[in-house]
Structures are given as structure tokens and as C-alpha cells.
Amino acid sequence: MQLLKRLIAFVVTGVTVLMGALLGPVAAFADGEPQPWQIGMQAPNTPVMDDIVWFHHFLLWVIAAITLFVLGLLVIVIVRFNARANPTPSRTTHNTFIEVIWTVVPVLILVTIAIPSFRLLFYQLKVPPADVTVKVTGKQWFWSYSYPDQKFEFDSLMLQDKDRKPNQPRLLAVDNEMVVPVNKVVHVQVIGADVIHSFSVPSFGIKIDAVPGRLNETWFKAEREGMYYGQCSQLCGRDHAFMPIAVHVVSEQAYSAWLADAKKKYASTDDSARPTAVAAAGDVK
């Protein structure tokens, strides 16, 4: 009886987690930030993230089917082949058919998983012709965004609690967001200035290391306007937890207006005029 209760609890927990993971992206809010009690991923906002969510759901069903199959076999073994029900065990040592099945079936499962996995990997790594290029530099402990085609650059630091507006999330809001137009291919070049950082925005399906001396690249095409948040995903030092990423996706008209203002605001900014308080975010508790 106790074993049966444990099996029921296991199945109920598994179904709950499975449904939460499947419904999480659907139930999430439009803006890309984590929500209280959220189990699944953030709502996708790029074609790449759409494919990642699909692949995640596909793998989840495969894993669930395998888990239930193995659980069924274990239950059969427990019920039919315990010492009371089967006092005289079989001494069969080989079964060619079963050995072929448990070799071939896993291979077929792995091939079924590998085909969409490799397709998704190539889709992520092949950067299409870009409409906008942004160079992202990870520093201790903030981000710098450069628009090489427009010839300006600015730093982005986490807002202190006293500077945040009520609608801005704590530990994610920044003073200067990376701004991009909606439905345009954004080519993101990523590099580190001091140590290894990691540029990650979950709603866009991008996560790439910022390595000093090496220029990595990724891309995204945001399909909805809004504010989308991420964080450095590489342990990079004392204030690693205080270097968030904020990407503001706007209309083409709003982007053109922002570019005009940004050229005036940032074009003359040189290294000596930029913030030098590298640990400014460390005061947040």
C-alpha cells in the first residue's frame, strides 16, 4: 500500500510538472521577464525561441513516454516476479529478440531527437543578413552597447532601488536599454573586456559567451514590441548578479527617433566620460 501511494504521488507530481512546463510559455506575460511561481520558459518572441520551445515540448513528451514505460516495467517486475508470486525464478540468461529490441529502439530514439536538434543548432548559428548590428561588450560589472553603423556607444548599468520607477523590475531594470526595431534581424556581436561574461536573453533564445579577445556572434528577430530582460549567465566576479540586460523592442518610427536622439547624446562620449564605478551595483541588497 505504501508503495502504491508513492507511485501515485510520483505520477501526480510528474503530470503537474509536465503541464506546468507546457503551459508556462503560454501563460507568461508578453514582456520578457520572469514571473512569480513560473515553471515553464518565458514567452517566446523570436523564431529561434519558437523552435526552442517546440523542441523542449517534443523532448518532454519523449522523456515522459520513456519514464512511464520504464515505470511500467518496474511495476510489472515488482508485482509478478517478487519472491511470493514467483518463488522459482527463471534461469534464462539470453533472449536474442529482446537484446535486439533494446539496442535498436534507443538508437531510433536518439536519431529522432538528433534530427531536429541539429536543425535547430544550425538555425541558431547561421546569421542571416542583418538589418541592425549591435556590438555588446561585457565588463565588470555592466554592459556596453555599440552601434557601429551609427557610430555611437553607451554603457548600461543596473538601476539602484531609489532610481527605479514602480513598473521597473528590481535587479533587471537599467539606466540605458539596448534599443532595436521590431521584425528586423539584429546581428549581435559579443566580446568581453576583462573576464568571460555571458549575454543571455531568454525570450529571444540567445545565450552566448563574451570572451576577451574573441568576437562571438548571434542574432534575433523580435516579433513583438516591449521590454525584454536577461542577465549575465557566467560567473564573472563579485557583482555578477548585478549586471542585467534590458532590450527595448520598438516600432521602426520609434527606433528612428531614438537613433536621432542617441547620436546626439552618445556620439561625443569617450572612454574618459563614461562611468568608472565598476562596482556601483554592489550596493544593492
Describe the fold and architecture.
The structure is a single chain. By secondary structure, this protein is α+β, with helices and mostly antiparallel strands. The protein folds into two domains: 2-91; 132-283, Immunoglobulin-like, CATH 2.60.40.420. It is built from four helices and ten strands, in the order αααββββββββββα. Helix 1 (2-27) runs antiparallel to helix 2. The chain starts with a helix and ends in a 19-residue tail after the last helix.
Helix-residue proportion = 25-40%
What does the radius of gyration come to? 25 Å
CATH homologous superfamily placement of the largest domain: Cupredoxins -  blue copper proteins
Which assembly state applies to the chains in this document? Answer: single chain
Query: How many distinct helices?
Result: 4
**Strand arrangement, largest sheet?**
3-2-1-5-8
Features:
single chain, 285 residues, alpha+beta, Immunoglobulin-like, elongated
Compact overview of the structure:
This protein is an alpha+beta fold and 285 residues long. It is built from four helices and ten strands; from the N terminus they run αααββββββββββα. Strand 6 and strand 7 (206-210) form a beta hairpin.
Topology:
Elements: H1 2-27, H2 47-80, H3 96-125, E1 132-139, E2 142-147, E3 152-156, E4 178-181, E5 186-192, E6 197-201, E7 206-210, E8 216-220, E9 226-232, E10 244-250, H4 252-266
Parallel strand pairs: 1-5, 4-10
Antiparallel strand pairs: 1-2, 2-3, 5-8, 6-7, 6-9, 9-10
